[in-house]
Write a structure and sequence with these properties.
three-stranded antiparallel beta sheet; Nucleoside Triphosphate Pyrophosphohydrolase; 329 residues; elongated; DNA-binding; alpha+beta
DNA sequence: GAGCCGTGGGC
DNA sequence: TGCCCAAGGCT
């Protein structure tokens, strides 16, 4: 969960996840849908698929995790970083998990001016040399944790507190007065914009038409309301409605949703319609979800925003909520 | 190596 | 508002 995600965002998911799946065996036995629903809103959904696959692999291996780096590294979703973190923290192996914190601390201590990710091999080398020192090697878990915490607090991204830092006397970045500007990073690519239209279709009993996205790729395995493709060109009302699940309905534009992914920005028009009964042909590969079950679906935040627009319209007169999740409870 | 893959918070 | 970033992995 902590891969590329902040501790504050993770904690409530972590606690709920462990209450649902307290052991590797209960997780391995859980249905995919339930696991994806428990992850919904946290992002990077391949992590959830990998974690589930990892749990099932561990159970196949007898229910015990490998206690060596190569064995850990071979599990789904576990790369160099996570293998080192589990190795050092769970098994006391002399490995350094090199994350963004360690990148920053090593770059500053050694005044590494080569931009990331070019500097990664040198950073790994410096971190390994640190762990090889006697006091570190005697306490790999504490060493890893100390590097995380130093990077997360004193050696922070924007304003390092060098005056409070125990390493300041030996820090080359501080001595040169360039600590705050490190690590340097290669420039980022521009973020393109895409457009789409999605359709909130409900019946007299409040069911909402949903469908499941393909298992892999963007938002893989998550639920959504039906919609058009996401393309560079905006969708006219006419072109969008031609792709609605039912064309013979009174579609009303409910609003727009803006969502920023890592590599593109998405602008969605959301249309709503309600029929007494939804014809079988409109359901297609999708399914009807009772309004009360929406919160149990694997809905990414983007779709929670779209659903909120439709649910708000259905509940005219009820007080408006100021957060999408409030409307889904 | 570089692109793909979410989301929310801080400044 | 817009950009940056966060205990990265997979293809």
């Amino acid at each position: 969960m902590l891969q590329q995600t902040t501790v504050t965002a993770v904690i409530p998911y972590y606690e709920r996840f462990l209450s649902l799946f307290p052991t590797v065996r209960t997780l391995a036995a859980a249905p995919d849908d339930k696991v994806m629903a428990a992850w919904a809103g946290l992002g990077y959904y391949a992590r959830a698929r990998n974690l589930l696959a990892c749990a099932r692999r561990v159970v196949e291996l007898g229910g015990e995790f490998p206690a060596d780096l190569d064995g850990l590294r071979a599990l789904p979703g576990i790369g160099d970083y996570t293998a080192a973190a589990v190795g050092a923290i769970a098994f006391g192996l002399p490995a350094v998990p090199v994350d963004g914190n360690v990148d920053r601390v090593m770059s500053r201590v050694w005044a590494i001016e080569t931009p990331l990710p070019q500097s990664k091999p040198l950073i790994r080398e410096r971190a390994a040399a640190l762990m090889a020192q006697t006091e570190a090697r005697d306490a790999p878990s504490d060493t890893a944790q100390a590097l995380f915490d130093l990077g997360a607090t004193l050696c922070s991204t924007t304003s390092p507190a060098c005056g409070l830092c125990p390493w300041a006397p030996e820090c080359e970045g501080h001595r040169k007065g360039i600590a705050a500007s490190l690590p340097r990073k290669a420039p980022k690519a521009v973020r393109p914009r895409r457009h789409g239209a999605h359709f909130h279709l409900s019946d007299a009993e409040g069911h909402v038409l949903l469908r499941r996205r393909p298992a892999k790729g963007l938002l893989g395995g998550m639920a959504e309301i039906p919609g058009t493709a996401w393309r560079a060109e905006a969708w006219s009302r006419q072109d969008a409605l031609a792709q609605a699940p039912v064309t013979q309905a009174h579609w009303v534009k409910l609003g727009s949703v803006r969502h920023v992914f890592t590599h593109f920005e998405l602008l969605l028009d959301v249309y709503g319609a309600s029929l007494v009964t939804i014809p079988e042909g409109a359901i297609g590969q999708g399914f009807l979800c009772p309004a009360g079950d929406l919160h149990a679906q694997a809905l990414p935040s983007l779709m929670a925003k779209c659903l909120a627009l439709g649910q708000k319209t259905l509940k005219q007169g009820s007080p408006a909520a100021d957060h999408p999740a409030d409307l889904l409870v």
